[in-house]
Q: What sequence folds into this?
């Protein structure tokens, strides 16, 4: 498999998906240039969860040692009710002892991917806006507002979910390495510690007004505290420390029906934006990167290679997006539905602790390296 050897490829976007794609392509011998419109690399100072399916790919691309040094392994995910009482604890180490789930500060992940890509020979050009495909092969990893997605699929109007998410970072000198979810009627809050003494907070509420998409809209910390004042456990202490927050409206987008033409391919959010309720936006982009490079390397005919890439990826990302949509509802139950759902989860927690982690074996045990291009 050497169809990529010395081929010239342009990647648009130096986010997680674009940089992983550049690394995957360069590792197979391609000459890759990444063009990023921002004047410097970086991202909103947020946390990110990388599940085993994504970590598996980065290990295979040689970025594993840097990743594990910069990240923190998470032991568990615990679901709690609004008062902070345990509903269900999913022990990730016990269920998958050899498949790490990692917590990392997003800018650190961007930096280590950029470093790995440059070491593989990738050229990264900043302050470059690309509106049209470049050369014979262009990979558009330019996010949910991708103009290249629109060029392939036409303009599409996303559906507002009626939910708005708040994001914040606070100091956290030494908490247990696990993700905590607090579920209340019409709202929930997710939090986990990050390396470097930080804690990531994402709080989602249903509200009649809405905000634009994107993570960079500043919010009012006092309103965040007021809107989530009814939550117990450690939540009030966490929110008391928030001095800066951002918020954004959550919209559902369809998975693109067309991912490519003869010389352009979509990757990551440009092809399949997702809600943040399964922590798989970055994971899907990382998987895309491996599969795209493998198809282009194995199939010399470029249109056939790009068609095979979409055929392999489309069913999986559609299932993930649908699962994330379902979680958006499940976290916000009220009344009888909430009582029934929490009762079932508490029974599973007590009598069948491996049941809930096992429901997502299809997601976390997936290995794109085992697929035949």
A:
């Amino acid at each position: 498999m050497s169809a990529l050897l010395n081929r010239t490829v342009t990647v648009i976007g130096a986010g997680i998906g674009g940089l992983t794609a550049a690394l995957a392509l360069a590792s197979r011998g391609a000459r890759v240039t990444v063009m990023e419109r921002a004047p410097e690399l970086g991202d909103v100072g947020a946390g990110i969860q990388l599940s085993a399916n994504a970590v598996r790919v980065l290990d295979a691309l040689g970025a594993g040692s840097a990743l594990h040094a910069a990240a923190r392994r998470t032991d568990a995910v615990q679901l709690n009710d609004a008062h902070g009482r345990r509903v269900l604890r999913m022990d990730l180490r016990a269920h998958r002892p050899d498949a790490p789930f990692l917590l990392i500060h997003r800018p650190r992940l961007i930096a280590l991917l950029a470093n790995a890509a440059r070491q593989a020979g990738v050229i990264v050009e900043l302050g470059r806006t690309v509106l049209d495909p470049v050369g014979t092969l262009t990979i558009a990893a330019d996010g949910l507002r991708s103009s290249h997605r629109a060029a392939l699929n036409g303009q599409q109007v996303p559906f507002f979910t009626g939910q708005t998410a708040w994001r914040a970072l606070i100091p956290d000198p030494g908490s247990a390495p696990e993700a905590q979810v607090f579920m209340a009627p019409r709202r929930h809050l997710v939090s986990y510690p990050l390396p470097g003494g930080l804690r990531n907070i994402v709080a989602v509420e249903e509200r009649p007004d809405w905000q634009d998409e994107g993570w960079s809209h500043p919010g009012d910390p006092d309103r965040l505290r007021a809107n989530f004042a009814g939550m117990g456990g450690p939540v009030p202490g966490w929110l008391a420390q928030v001095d800066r927050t951002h918020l954004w409206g959550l919209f559902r987008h369809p998975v693109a029906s067309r991912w490519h033409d003869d010389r352009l391919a979509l990757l990551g959010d440009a092809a399949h934006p997702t809600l943040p309720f399964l922590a798989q936006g970055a994971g899907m982009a990382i998987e895309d990167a491996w599969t795209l490079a493998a198809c282009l390397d194995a199939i010399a005919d470029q249109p056939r290679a790009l068609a095979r890439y979409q055929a392999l990826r489309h069913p999986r990302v559609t299932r993930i997006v649908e699962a994330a949509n379902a979680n958006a509802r499940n976290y916000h139950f009220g009344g009888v539905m909430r009582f029934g759902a929490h009762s079932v989860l508490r029974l599973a927690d007590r009598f069948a602790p491996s049941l809930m982690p096992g429901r997502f074996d299809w997601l976390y045990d997936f290995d794109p390296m085992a697929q035949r291009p």
In short: The chain has 13 helices and 16 strands. Residues 8-72+103-157+253-329+359-370 form a domain with the FAD/NAD(P)-binding domain fold (CATH 3.50.50.60). The two ends are 10 Å apart (CA to CA).
